Amino acid sequence: REQAVWAVRTDTHFMWKLALGSNPVLSPDGQWALLVNDGLIYRVSLSPPSDPSEMPELELMFKAAGSNGSPQWSPDCTRIAFVTRRNDHSFIGIYHIAKRKITWVAPCVDRDSDPSWSADGQKIAFIRRPGLQYDDSPRPRYWYRGPADLEIWIADVNKGTARKIWSSPKDEPLFYSFRNFELTGNDRILFTAENKEWNHVYSLSISGGEPVDLTPGEGFVEHLGLSSDGKTLFFSSNRADIHGRHIWKVPTSGGKAVQLTKKDTIGTYPAALGSGSKVAFLYATASHPTSIAVVPSGGGKIDVIAPDTLPVEFPADDLVIPELVTVKSPDGLDIPCQLFLPKGAKPGDNRPGVVYTHGGPIRQMLLGWHYMEFYSEAYGINQYFANKGYVVLSVNYRSGIGYGRSFREADNTGMQGAAEYQDVLAGAKYLQERPEVDPNRIGKWGLSYGGLLTAMALARNSDIFKVGVDMAGVHDWSQLRGRLDEKMRQTARESSPVANIETWTSPVLFIHGDDDRNVPFQQTTDIVQKLRAKGDVHIELMIAPDEPHEFLLYKNRMEAYNRTFEFINRFIGKYRITSQAREKPKEENKKLSTLDIYINK
After folding, report:
1. For the chain, how many structural domains are there in total?
2. CATH code at 142?
3. d(CA 159, CA 161)
4. 3-state class of 564 per DSSP?
């Protein structure tokens, strides 16, 4: 399997493979792209080749010690700023293309990163963190949890001088995280940081002073887009709509933020058009899948680009509008959920129910089509279940995003106690109490962390969850983390599905690709052997050789989704399957469940 960068002309739609790799950095004049492979920086021409079957030749820009990356073009395309990482320290370098020369920017014993050019190409802003001592371990990039752990510097690239313009307070941590560092055209440095509960955008003058919070209040900022003159910031946020996403704008120097999308729109990933008159973004609603749209930068009518890309036969009228519901977890925490209630559902229907949980866990499901690929598909699957008569509840359990840092980093979650499972259980009990639902026919499905919670549901509460589909789930935390003392290892295991395998009786379908780089495939291998040894659980498998965590091949994705519905429907479904018939379970398997099994006519 290879990952490659492709180029396409917008006028002729001529397309060609540019290079193996990912994350190209385009030059301002549109003539070149920079790519990083194995700690080296390469340049490749964007001129269309005469033979589209052959990739253009990559040009190695320079050789320098360490691992070189994070390349940034100067505005005039004559220089490249980059970071060279050398274990305990890192430098900012400027490569002069014509001179074939590297100039180092204020080299020190610290870790410098994130170079950002000024609009005139005369200055570079960058981040400086302390170098590592022998007993230090490198912290994840962009996370700054201690006092005086972060400095912002500005360098004059012609004079070769640099000065510190801001540092995090020494008395208390001001920022929990720090991302999206950029020097704008009006000499303001923008960055996102989490101060207390919410991730906000801050603006800092290169003259110094204190950062200004551009997005105060409740709600977090997720995606940024800067106007060409650097004076206006467009961003997506859930402020004013904690369960959704909208596009906003605010002056980079500070001022009142203005909401550009409203009502039932989901808006993410804003990108200002060159003219400045409009901003493009990813647009979706409860019934309209994610598309590209534009809205005037002052607000107004939203225009969806290329509406013909949505098939004429798309069943928009068959979709339900999910409802926001809140369930109370046993410890009193309010858990937001989306309820998919089939059209025409009424009390006494005795419909089957399904609980869905997202992965991550740092994700948030929305009241519409999601902006991330798999979660958009998951939303579609939940709609499909609802279309077939199921009452579906999608649970935004604790440790997810969108509801503040305290919710995301709740105590005793994951391998430290699995406290989030009580939210899933609360969701299932909510479904059981719905007048439209048969309390004895509740299923469960999810991928990754959602797969973990599916396995947990079947292991701990087969009395409630009568069937489950576990996609690439974690089943034993103690085998997933390396350095754990005995007490931590015991807690990790007790927080895992394997700890309750003796009470697992409900049927399960495991779906997993054996080239999973997120969750080791052995997590599924191990639990299947344990369930087989137990001998009283109906197990089915869909194993995809060479597939990663989220399947790449369309046919494998479709098979996984079809089998998810078919498997759950076979054990708790009220409505007959309209796809190809499948065999009834063998007679010896009937003792595993007293549930009615519905298959094709």
Report:
1. 4
2. 2.120.10.30
3. 5
4. helix
Domain assignment of residue 601, yes or no:
no
- Two tokens, residue 579: 């796809």
> Based on the domain organization, do 54 and 82 belong to the same domain?
no
| SS3 assignment, position 284 | strand
Instruction: Please report, as a single letter, which amino acid is at residue 601.
Output: K
Amino acid at 47: S
More confident residue, 87 or 483: 87
151-167 pLDDT, tens digit each: 899 999 988 899 999 88
Q: Over the stretch 198-247, which tens digit does the pLDDT of each residue have?
A: 999 999 999 888 889 999 999 999 999 999 888 999 999 999 999 999 99
Residues across the chain: 601
Domain membership flag for residue 270: yes
Last residue of one domain, picked from the residues 213, 245, 275:
213
φ, ψ (nearest 5 deg) of residue 156? -90, 110
Question: Cα separation of 104 and 81, whole Å?
Answer: 10
Q: Which domain holds residue 51?
A: 1-61
Please provide the DSSP assignment of 350-413 as one string: -EEEEEEE-SSSS----SS--SSHHHHHHHHHHHHHHHTT-EEEEE--TT-SSS-HHHHT-TT-
Q: How sure is the predictor about 590, in pLDDT bands with cuts at 50, 70 and 90?
A: very low
Same domain, 239 and 347: no
Nearest alpha-carbon partner for 247 in 273, 221, 277: 221
pTM: 0.86
Q: How does residue 292 score in pLDDT terms, banded at 50, 70 and 90?
A: very high
Q: E strands within 49-100?
A: 59-60, 67-73, 79-86, 89-96
* 528 Cβ contact partners less than 8 Å away, ≥ 6 residues apart: 510, 539, 541
Token pair of 275 as six digits: 């003219």
DSSP-assigned letter for residue 438: E
How many CA atoms are closer than 13 Å to the CA of 523, on its beta-carbon side? 32
Q: Six-digit token pair at 342?
A: 């089939």
Which is higher by pLDDT, 501 or 576? 501
Question: The tokens of 329 are what?
Answer: 């977890």
Burial track 408-429 (b if 16+ CB lie within 10 A, e otherwise): bebeebbbeebbbbbbbbbbbb
Q: 379 pLDDT exceeds 90? A: yes
Q: Within a domain: residue 305?
A: yes
Q: Which of 277, 292, 314 is the last residue of a domain?
A: 314
How confident is the model over 575-589, as pLDDT tens digits? 433 333 333 333 333
Do the domain assignments include residue 105?
yes
CB atoms within 10 A of CB 558: 12
Residue 393's CB is within 10 A of a number of other CB atoms, namely 27
C-beta of residue 437 within 8 angstroms of C-beta of residue 415 = no
306 Cβ neighbours under 8 A, 6+ residues apart: 291, 292
